[in-house]
Amino acid sequence: MKRLVVLTGAGMSAESGIKTFRDMGGVWEQYDVMEVASPEGWARHPEVVLEFYNQRRKQLFECLPNKGHYLLAELENYFDVQIITQNVDDLHERAGSTKVLHLHGELKKARSTADPTLVYDLDHWELKLGDKCEKGSQLRPHIVWFGEPVPAINDAEKKVRKADIFIVIGTSLTVYPAAGLLMDVLPGTPVFLIDPGELNIPGGLNVTHIKKKASEGIEELKSILINEN
Ligand code: OAD
C-alpha cells in the first residue's frame, strides 16, 4: 500500500464549527496568544489560561467530525494513512482515523506541572485550579505552548521522509517546526495542498494546490488518488 502522510491544521476542523487562528475573526484576533498560550501567561495568571482552554474544550465536546475527517478515515481502505495534526481536537480519531500524531498536544488531556510523563484523559470540560496529579501538583492543559519544545517533531519528520504522497490541509504554514515538515519530503514526492487561501509555498516542490475547503478538496483528491492507485 502507498503511504500517505497528511499534515492538518485548523482549517481541517473549520467546517466542524471550530474557529481557525489567523483567518478574519480567528482565535488570535480575540485573544493575545502570549497571555493564554505561553509558559509566561501560565505563570502570570493560570486561571485565565485554564478558562481559555476550558471554553475550547467545552466547545469540542459539542462538535462533530466533518465530511473531510470521514473522507480521510475512508482513505485507509486504499492507502496506509498517517495523519500528523497541529490540531488539539480529537475529530480525526472520532471519524475513525487510526494513526494520528498530535504535534501540539490534545485538548481532552491534562498533564502534571511537576512530571510531564503524567498525562490524564479528561472526560469533562473543566480543568480548575486545585486539580492535581497523583503527586500533588497542579494539572495544566496538555498543550504545546509558544516557546515550548514540540516533542513529537522528530517522529513526524521521520514519517514525512517515508511518504509516497504528502498532503497538507488547512494550515497557514506559519508555525514552526510544523511548517518545516514540508521541506522533509523526499525530492519528487507529490505534494497536494488543500486550502481555500493563498499560501507561501517554498520552491522546488512538486505541489498541486486544490484551492477549496477541506471537505470538497478531499473529495476531489480522493478521486484523483484512487484513479491513479
Ligand atoms: P491558521 O489559523 O494559522 O491557518 C488556518 C488555515 O486554514 C488558513 O490557511 C486558511 O486559509 C485555512 N482554512 C480556513 N477555512 C478552511 C476550510 N474550511 N478548509 C480548509 N482550509 C481552511 O491555523 P494553523 O495553521 O493550524 O498552535 O495554525 C498553526 C498553529 O498556530 C496552531 O496549531 C496553534 C496556532 O497558534 C498552538 O496553539 C500551539
In a few lines, what is going on in this structure?
The protein is of the alpha/beta class and 229 residues long.
Secondary-structure element pattern, one letter each: EHHHHHHEHEEEEHEEEH
Largest sheet, in brief, is: 6 strands, parallel
Overall domain count? 2
What structural class do you assign from the helix and strand content? alpha/beta
How big is the Rg? Answer: 18 Å
Helix content: 25-40%
Distance between the termini: 9 Å
Total beta strand runs: 9
Architecture per CATH nomenclature, i.e. the level-2 architecture of the largest domain: 3-Layer(aba) Sandwich
Q: Low-confidence parts lasting 5 or more residues at pLDDT below 50? A: none
List the keywords.
single chain, six-stranded parallel beta sheet, SIR2/SIRT2 'Small Domain', 2 domains, 229 residues, Rossmann fold, three-stranded antiparallel beta sheet, binds 2'-O-acetyl adenosine-5-diphosphoribose, 20% strand, alpha/beta, 9 strands
